[in-house]
Fold this sequence. Notes:
Two copies of one chain form a homodimer.
Chain A: E1 2-9, H1 13-20, H2 24-36, E2 41-45, H3 53-65, E3 72-75, H4 79-88, E4 93-98, H5 102-115, E5 118-122, H6 134-151, E6 158-161, H7 172-190, E7 197-199, H8 212-229, E8 233-236, H9 241-253
Parallel strand pairs in A: 1-2, 1-8, 2-3, 3-4, 4-5, 5-6, 7-8
Amino acid sequence: MLVIADNVQANHGAIQKAVQRGDPGPVQSLARRTEAAGARMLDISVGPPGRDGAQKMAFLVEAIQSVTDLPVLIDAADADVMAAGLEANRKTAVHNGFSLEPRKLEAILPLAVRHDTDIIGYLIDERSQPPASLEDRLRIAVELEHAAQSAGLRDESLMIDPFIAPLIWEDGHRRNATLLEVVRRLPEALDRPVKTVVGLSNLTSGRAASDRDRKRTVELAFLPMLAAAGVTMVMLNVFHAEAVRLARACESLLSQKVFAWETL
Amino acid sequence: MLVIADNVQANHGAIQKAVQRGDPGPVQSLARRTEAAGARMLDISVGPPGRDGAQKMAFLVEAIQSVTDLPVLIDAADADVMAAGLEANRKTAVHNGFSLEPRKLEAILPLAVRHDTDIIGYLIDERSQPPASLEDRLRIAVELEHAAQSAGLRDESLMIDPFIAPLIWEDGHRRNATLLEVVRRLPEALDRPVKTVVGLSNLTSGRAASDRDRKRTVELAFLPMLAAAGVTMVMLNVFHAEAVRLARACESLLSQKVFAWETL
Lengths: 264, 264
């Protein structure tokens, strides 16, 4: 299971300040540290829609690609921000992402075609709601693929984010048990191998930072379940060293090679 | 996933000495500490066949049951030792366990009938070898059930240990990936809900104690995979606090209740 760092977020802390004053130093330092910590890709987000989102995204992509060759995920809900990120890209970028919402299909999806990138489709419905049932989620996966095909993308360009439900929801854990089954069934539903990507921190979103130990434990418990179901990429805080080690151990356990121990 | 402590082993350390001099104190102290650490059952082993095995087992069962009501697993390969453990039992005991080996079927299996206990059947063949394929393992599960029925046990008395392969084996991890599928298929193969129990430390057996960090990480990675596949009981070192916390988190994630977070 390949680890994607979710650490590059332009809407708080030192990175927010660096972006505001146009100083690439702290961003570059963060990118280097995430790579050293085990990140194999970097997700880049400028946070909720706001002024200068496009400019911030372009700044981040340029700053990061000046110090690392890791592929970047342009994580944006607005077409402007997405376009700016994909235009700034000089190495490998992934479009993250689109859904069946009309404005996503019209304005966001075509940007992946124009820039010839892989794209992530979210298993949420036309109104941005995540369905609970296995059948509805598999149906949405098929519809996402049809939409991507209609837009002119090759099937293999489409990766699926099956959407981890927050445990703060009454039925969050049940939805996530179904998610494991969704991931197992996707190759059959789309009739091809399907790359999948999940945002692990969604599991504990809405929980206080003071609950850090419980948040980490439950993330560590869900990570191998995702890996065994067949999830190929997991987005997480790569400075949570235990999670990165665990993702690597999962890869060894599920490897097709011999003597898996040696790869730990 | 219910945690069984594998900490009570009479063949080394302070427990060995206590058993030799007939002092129940250290055994009772250990039993109390395993319970406080989160054990819900205790596996009791006197180690490889040797002199006084039966006497040692009886001593351990009595010492432990004088301080805790936790069910005990009588973990013995010899009929004498098993019989002594089951006779000493005054609370709840599980027979651990039997296989298709002729001497197990003849001498060990009937003890579960005589003492009316649940029993654990191992997915290994007549020559004590673990088969690699899914089909062979499911076939053995069916044969174990037939053997238990013939001996006079109720179907529900039989729990299955699907046998975790050591990663030191060339194909250990592949065998364990198949094991997950075996556990998922057991209810269909036996046409009933099936309780399963695994010995987690088998995964890293044959590895040096100096490799402790890697051993622990790989155990933590496999534990939630087992839980998600449906394993109901896991035997482990309960003083590995992270593993016990993780087992509890798995239970919450896979619970059918609402608001799983609150049970963490």
